[in-house]
Amino acid sequence: MPKLKTKKAVAKRFRITRSGKILRLRAGGSHLMRKKTAKRRRALRKKDVVSPAEKQRIRRLLPYG
Fold it and tell me: Between the chain's N and C termini, which has fewer beta carbons within 10 Å?
């Protein structure tokens, strides 16, 4: 069986923790910051865990993650 290729676009956007959770950045944190509250901007800096529905799909794109 040939080696599987990692989807590099996905590898740059997601991180897999030691316990197997997949972390992602929150959407909307790159521009138009002045209209967002300070509380919202702080929340956007934090990572979020991917939902179980999406987890299976991302796992397939990161075979060695």
Answer: N
Q: What is the CATH number of domain 8-61?
A: 4.10.410.60
What gap in Å lies between CA 40 and CA 15, rounded to an integer? 23
15 DSSP β-pair partners: 23
Q: Which tokens go with 50? A: 């991917």
Domain range annotation of the chain: 8-61
Show Cβ contacts of residue 61 under 8 Å, excluding neighbours closer than 6 positions.
6, 7, 10
Q: Which is it for the CA torsion 46, 49, 51, 54, positive or negative?
A: positive
Tell me which residue of 33, 11, 40 sits closest to 23, measured CA to CA.
11
Q: Which residues pair with 49 in a beta bridge?
A: 23
